[in-house]
Write a structure and sequence with these properties.
Layout: H1 9-21, H2 26-46, E1 60-71, E2 74-84, H3 91-94, H4 98-112, H5 118-128, H6 134-152, E3 159-173, E4 176-189, E5 194-202, H7 207-219, E6 227-230, H8 234-243, E7 249-251, H9 253-260, H10 269-280, H11 285-302, H12 304-313, H13 328-331, H14 335-348, E8 353-354, H15 357-377
Parallel strand pairs: 3-6, 3-8, 6-7
Antiparallel strand pairs: 1-2, 3-4, 4-5
């Protein structure tokens, strides 16, 4: 078994080059770093250094393959380590390149379709390394779509909690600019880790789109769900009741609190916010219901619309009380989906207007694949 080194001499050399010569030496330094990281990774995967005799060895080093990697910093000319009797491809090359390729293609599609600006052209050339023709865009898109479709259609299993949400992107459709809904499903598995279960697009949040999305999750093996957490989307509510009728629903407490503020005068905003917070901070469900009843009676005369709204809506935010108290903070809001949406928005905001639905789905899927990999290999969510 190979020993753990604190650092490699080549890595130290690359860092010294950066320190002494600055950004001008960035690409050569990155080449050294990538090449050495790939060697270290190959040794770890094979569980042996080249020529080392060990019973743990899983395969053999088999030379190198030249590869040009296009990055934001420029072209890197790399030596990718090869293996014999064991499949190996460096994760440091795979990770982080999908979303960059997808963004490059999205911008390239805008450029070749005449809907871009000089700025878009500049970004495209920086990400892709050259001006891309429509034929090249089509070929590269097909290759990437095949890879990303494998993620979207992969089997999924038991998920205790499922968070559902949607956000919007601008897209050209039949000569018009339309709002395209991006549907996302986040699950928490039996071991407490988050997974991104599904991603889909639709030109509205109508019931039919949500229903198709949920049915696809079931076809791919979704089972064991004890609670669905979401906002109060009308289409989602109907689809959920049709496809998953026996699964309890937790309406996002945070959005409930925000909605409450529109049912009374601006002077009462802070008071209303505190009232809702007091209800959901109750130590048990019966106490929460009791506080809700008192609040409904209290505001019956002062703020009748708010009183009526509470009576009609607030119990939809109490499903979390049926689950372990240590989970309450994470399952009473839809924050898991909100954070995912924020990360998607951070990447898609560069493109702003997409040339077609396929380019949106391509970029969003590439982004969520990277996030999914971080989640399943990182800290437990619950």
């Amino acid at each position: 078994m190979i020993s753990n080194q604190k650092y490699s001499p080549l890595i130290e050399e690359a860092l010294l080059d950066l320190a002494e010569q600055g950004v001008e030496i960035l690409c050569p330094a990155l080449e050294k770093l990538f090449n050495e990281l790939m060697l270290i990774e190959r040794n770890q995967v094979l569980q042996a250094s080249p020529y080392e005799r060990t019973e743990q060895r899983k395969g053999y080093a088999n030379g190198f393959k030249n590869k040009m990697l296009q990055t934001r910093m420029g072209k890197l000319h790399l030596q990718v380590p090869k293996t014999r009797d064991f499949h190996f491809y460096p994760k440091c090359l795979e990770k982080g390149t999908r979303s960059e390729r997808a963004l490059g293609l999205a911008l390239a599609e805008m450029y070749v379709n005449g809907v871009s600006t000089r700025r878009v052209k500049k970004i495209t050339e920086k990400l892709c390394g050259l001006e891309i023709s429509s034929t090249q865009v089509s070929r590269l898109s097909q290759l990437m779509d095949k890879e990303l479709e494998q993620f979207r259609s992969r089997p999924i299993g038991r998920m205790i909690y499922v968070y559902l949400d949607a956000r919007y992107e601008k897209v050209r459709e039949n000569g018009c600019v339309r709002d395209l809904a991006i549907f996302t499903a986040v699950g928490v598995n039996e071991d407490g880790y988050r997974e991104i279960l599904g991603i889909s697009c639709g030109l509205s949040e109508a019931e039919v789109h949500w229903r198709n999305f949920l049915e696809d999750l079931l076809k791919r093996g979704l089972t064991g769900t004890k609670l669905i957490i979401s906002d109060n989307h009308a289409g989602l509510k109907k689809a959920r009741q049709a496809v998953l009728p026996g699964v309890p629903w937790q309406r996002c407490y945070f959005h409930l609190s925000q909605n409450a503020q529109s049912y009374a005068s601006p002077k009462m905003v802070n008071e209303i916010s505190q009232t809702i917070q007091d209800i959901y901070n109750a130590p048990e469900k019966e106490e929460a219901k009791s506080r809700l009843k008192r609040a409904v009676e209290k505001y019956e005369q002062r703020a009748p619309r708010f009183s009526e709204w509470m009576e009609r809506n607030c119990e939809e935010g109490m499903a979390y009380y049926e689950f372990p108290p240590e989970h309450w903070k994470k399952i009473r809001t839809n924050n898991a989906s909100e954070r995912l949406n924020q990360e998607i928005k951070r990447r898609t905001s560069i493109a702003r207007l997409f040339p077609n639905v396929e380019s949106v789905l391509r970029l969003v899927t590439a982004v969520v694949v990277e996030i999914h990999e971080d989640w399943i290999s990182g800290r437990k969510y619950l």
